[in-house]
Amino acid sequence: MIEQEKWIKFILMLIACSAISALALITFFIFWEGLPVIWKIGLWDFISGLKWAPTKGKFGILPMIVGSFEVTFGAMILGVPLALLCAIYLAEFASPRTRNILKPAIEVLAGIPSVVYGFIGMMVIVPFLRNTFGGSGFSVAGCSIVLGIMILPTITSISFDALMAIPRTYREGSLALGATPWQTVKMVVLPAAKSGIVAAVILGMGRAIGETMAVIMIAGNSLIIPLTPFDPVRTLTSNIALEMGYATGDHRQALFATGIILFVVIMCLNSLANWIANKAVAK
Amino acid sequence: MINPKIEQRLALWLLKAAAGITVMLLGLIILYIVIRGVPAISWSFLWHNPEDMGRSGGIFSSVIGTFMLAGLSICIATPLGVGTAIFLTEYTTESWHTRIIRFGADCLSGIPSIIFGLFGFVLFVIVLDFGWCILSGALTMCFMILPTIIRTTEEAIKAVPFELREASFSLGATKWQTITKVVLPESLAGIITGVVLGVGRCVGETAVVIFTAGSALATPTSIFDSSRTMAVHFYIISREGISISNAFGTALVLVVCILLINICTYWMMHRYIRKKH
Amino acid sequence: MISANSSVCVEIRDLWVRYCPKNRWEKETIALNGLTMNIMKNEILSIIGPAHSGKTTLLRAINRLTELHRNVKIQGDILLNQASIYDPQVNVVELRRKVGMVFARPVVLPKSIFENIAYGPRLKGIHHPAELEKIVESSLQAAYLWNEVKDRLHQPALALSGGQQQRLCIARVIALQPEIIMFDEPTSALDPISTGKIEDTLHELKTQYTIILVTNNTKQAARVGTQSAFFLMGKLIEMGSTEQIFTRPYAKKTEDYITGRFG
């Protein structure tokens, strides 16, 4: 009996290593495939190169890096205020009935597949932009709008949790001093939940950078650095997804190298968010 | 300086507007898909395979592919996820090794699907030489949904009162007997919630599947066949402009599946929470 | 070392139980402070004392439930029928079957009434339905619960009242045929009528089992116990027959406690 228990513990321990070993495997294989080409070209030339011409052996991903960040920035401008207002309303002012409608609605929004978002963007937002602002309509602005909606649930639900974790006594203390509920939120609750909210925004940013399928359908995917919001754009993710199907040799490795850059950026963002959130808990 | 009362009213109005916009967005998305999708749906659309690269015919093979992939991936991920959660909650106290395991799960949940796709392509399709098939897709997806299952199971197990464990131990149960006979049955609803959420992610995922399971049109007969899931099928026919009407039909089926899964989960969570209080 | 008196059931020798600090700024607490005492067969020993005097810790040390918490350190020894229970050879599961425990709040497992009682015997390897039914019936009868629940054995146990749940917990322990049954303030969460029923059950059980009753209620100790012990700050202050403890205690502290001057 005691022997058996020991075995069970050992097996469970092996199983528990699955998550961390998956992470290790992913890191290993992405770097294994992508690093040789980075060695060959040089890291600086790879990330600062303006020209991406796989047939001529030119691999520079600067336009895509810029594109990814522009799209993400736009999405943050549109998505973050809406998401935060939603979270504040949900946590502080909504009646239980409203909350019971709003929370599942936000969860469903998170569950809708990214291709569906991309498709709707392609069918509705792109024609709208084309008719209003001219050009093709496939643009940074279109991507930002769709990504803004897509990151809404992530930011809302994580900052909602952060707001709910603030003890009720804080609020009561402020209300008892004659503050209005909004003043209480502004001066007591939001500052107290600051780190949780920042973590939520960073995680939302990670999602926006990593999103692939929706972006691919709206971005236009031209290899230029977009100068206005209505220029077409190619992001790091769409670059990988577009060319992976037929890439071979150095070209394929360059796509994996693009993956490395993406992976590193995302890991930095997530670790930052994690660190900020943990600091808040420790406090 | 604005009068606090007016400020309060303005702020509340703004907050309500934001919440309203969010719900409206969801409503519009679903409405749009339903209105444009319903005309494409028919009995034969659901029960026939795509013909002429999806230009006509139905989506039967991709429905089968979707369920095979989601099912297989859940079958692999559930034991791993639940096992990890049991180890984290019942067999260890907070220490450096639990922190490493949690760190792994946290990182995994933040990695974008395209990276999973690249990884699955190298490891399963190329290095292990499974080729593009449902097995490769399911193994890759399993890593993707693992963090969700770990987290929900852990929450559910933590919610089981310690007294129940003590009572079971004092009646002469071993740790494993206590876990299987008392702890797991009590946390079943929470575990199922995590599993169902995982199914939802499998059904909606595109990038991973396209890289690992390929996009064959035929009905898969084994896990070593390549298959396109609904999401991939939808992506291909809509992006390449093959058939917009069939694309809307597929989108509707996809969204209805996701909605059903979400409602299911929500209902289960609700029942679970009510039971606890 | 063999104990001189063979009617001693549990022998506690210089037992120290410490709760170690989880982090730097917490202090170590000593729950039991060099405790030595003997518990006789077929007695009801009632242990009284103020909160945090180590009563519950003692019970948990006797069936080794303390091991569920990692930060507990135990020194000294407990002998059950002249054999140490902390011997590495001892099977903890067997020990817990011999030493049953009833908790302060009724903890029924989220199963049916029948399954609650059959839980222990099943783990022991009894699977025959007729045998299980016999065990369930006799245990429920011993806990005076049979007449109240015999028609709804397969309904969820959580539907029972608090007092019934507690008697179900007692029946569940009896089903294992233990040698000792320990009660950790079994009536602290119950109304007076249920308390009365449980005390009646205790009297009946005395003929077959050795009983250790931890209680906050000194009157209950006086009503039920044949032996009484008074604990304070992890130390045994005084132990003797209930009559002696409650009428002419030797120690001043005992007298102060039972007359209600502190605690």
In short:
The complex is a heterotrimer of chains A (283), B (277) and C (263). With 283 residues, chain A is mainly alpha-helical.
Strand and helix layout:
The complex is a heterotrimer of chains A (283), B (277) and C (263).
Chain A: H1 2-41, H2 43-48, E1 52-53, E2 58-59, H3 62-93, H4 96-111, H5 114-133, H6 140-164, H7 168-176, H8 181-192, H9 194-210, H10 213-218, H11 236-243, H12 249-282
Chain B: H1 4-37, H2 43-47, E1 50-51, E2 56-57, H3 60-91, H4 96-110, H5 113-127, H6 134-158, H7 162-170, H8 175-204, H9 207-212, H10 230-239, H11 244-276
Antiparallel strand pairs in B: 1-2
Chain C: E1 8-19, E2 29-40, E3 44-48, H1 55-62, E4 72-80, E5 83-84, H2 92-98, E6 99-102, H3 113-124, H4 129-142, H5 146-149, H6 162-174, E7 180-184, H7 192-205, E8 210-214, H8 218-224, E9 227-232, E10 235-241, H9 242-247, H10 252-258
Parallel strand pairs in C: 3-8, 3-9, 6-7, 7-8
Antiparallel strand pairs in C: 1-2, 1-4, 4-5, 9-10
Describe the model.
The complex is a heterotrimer of chains A (283), B (277) and C (263). With 283 residues, chain A is mainly alpha-helical. Helices cover 80% and strands 1% of the residues of chain A. Chain A starts with a helix and ends with a helix. The mean pLDDT of chain A is 87. By secondary structure, chain B is an all-alpha fold. Chain B folds into two domains: 4-40; 43-276, Orthogonal Bundle (MetI-like fold). The mean pLDDT of chain B is 85. By secondary structure, chain C is of the alpha/beta class. In chain C, 35% of the residues lie in helices and 25% in strands. In chain C, the strands form two sheets. Chain C has a six-stranded mixed β-sheet with strand order 6-7-8-3-9-10, sandwiched between helices. Chain C has a four-stranded antiparallel β-sheet with strand order 2-1-4-5, covered by helices on one side. Chains in contact: A-B, B-C. The interface between A and B is large, with 89 and 81 residues.
